[in-house]
Design brief:
- By secondary structure, the protein is of the alpha+beta class.
- The chain has 2 domains: 178 residues, no CATH class; 152 residues, Alpha-Beta Plaits.
- It is built from 13 helices and 8 strands.
- It has a 6-stranded mixed β-sheet with strand order 2-3-1-6-7-8, with helices on both faces. Strands 4-5 form a two-stranded antiparallel ribbon.
- The N and C termini lie far apart (66 Å).
Length: 349
């Protein structure tokens, strides 16, 4: 019993959106269920049924999020159900139901993106005001009361929007910092390990081909020693920008070590990996200049084998990189095939 509970708590800590959906769902079920029972017992079937649908929909959405790991669809679904339900309750109960609009505004800004929450809030306000104008006295007792409601709800919506927007931006920045190398903008080793694990899992389940290239800048220490670490940092940043421009959109570049990088290439077989290594080396020879002249690199590559663990896959590529460096550098070894670099063309741009 303690172990499943511990796993649940760990999952909630690691998945912010799931924790929000779970918390808001729990609040919704606990807070609305007594009203649903009371209104059904009092004979107010429309509001009672609406409350019941909200409770059941909330429960189903939370279960769906836990079982599938998909939090976007349940969030949109819950925001829609709560928006429609709260509007119907407010129209039916009048001023007593209008109070539910304020928690609805906050709820939507937690469930969906700030833009979608703004649209949902405006739709609710427009619906209530339109009904109040067409059927006077059903929702608001006076124009002054309706105006006060609009002003206060818009203020609540604006404050919720600012809070949600800043919170989402800060969370995205933290997530980016957790997976990105701060100097070069490439993904970091922690992210690399996770991506390689996922690739190995997908290969086992679906047979998708994956290749990796481990790249090391030749004699990079001499750049730092002779020209300073700032010059070395500029070379690393220029290298990453060049590699990203020279690779496919679906390829992933990671900073593996100091001047060592790894590229994950989905849907790639051995000939494709050979071609990719040759292309990247060519681009580097033509376009990357360090303070002491052209910069070259050594490459080791491997294709993921059936049933292979991701660490073994990485180790094979790293071994081939070591062999490429032992063979004189400025070359690539992909699955035991040596690909020497073409001679540098003087005057090439």
């Amino acid at each position: 019993m303690a172990r499943p509970l511990l796993r649940m708590l760990t999952r909630l800590r690691n998945d912010f959106q799931l924790s929000i959906i779970t918390l808001m769902g729990l609040i919704g079920v606990v807070g609305i269920t007594p009203y649903a029972v009371y209104r059904l017992l009092q004979g107010n079937l429309l509001v009672g049924v609406a409350d019941t649908i909200i409770v059941l929909s909330t429960t189903a959405a939370v279960i769906y999020a836990w079982r599938t790991g998909n939090t976007e669809k349940p969030g949109i679904f819950l925001a829609t159900v709560f928006t429609v339900g709260s509007t119907l309750v407010a129209i039916n109960l009048g001023v007593n139901g209008v109070f539910w609009i304020y928690p609805l505004v906050l709820f939507n800004f937690f469930m969906v993106t700030p833009g979608k929450a703004v649209i949902a809030t405006l739709l609710v306000l427009v619906s209530l005001v339109t009904h109040a104008v067409l059927v006077p006295g059903t929702v608001f007792q006076s124009t002054y009361q309706m105006t006060s409601f609009l002003v206060t709800s818009l203020m609540a919506g604006l404050l919720a929007f600012i809070f949600a927007y800043r919170t989402r931006s800060q969370r995205e920045q933290l997530q980016l910092l957790a997976i990105q190398d701060p100097l070069t903008g490439a993904r970091n080793r922690r992210s690399m390990n996770e991506e390689l694990k996922i690739a190995a899992s997908i290969h086992r389940r679906h047979g998708n081909n994956y290749g990796i290239l481990v790249m090391d800048l030749d004699h990079f220490k001499l750049i730092n020693d002779n020209f300073g670490h700032q010059a070395g940092d500029r070379v690393l940043t220029a290298f990453v920008n060049l590699i990203k421009k020279s690779s496919r959109q679906e390829d992933r570049l990671f900073r593996f070590g100091g001047e060592e990088f790894l590229m994950l290439l989905p849907s790639t077989d051995k000939p494709g990996l050979l071609a990719a290594a040759e292309h990247l080396q060519q681009q580097l020879r033509l376009h990357l200049q360090g303070p002491g002249g052209p910069v070259t690199m050594s490459i080791g590559g491997s294709i993921l084998r059936d049933g292979e663990h991701w660490e073994s896959w990485l180790q094979r590529a790293d071994q081939r990189l070591y062999r490429a460096k032992s063979a004189g550098r400025n070359c690539s070894i992909i699955e035991d095939e040596l690909q020497p670099a073409a001679p540098l063309q003087l005057g090439a741009s």
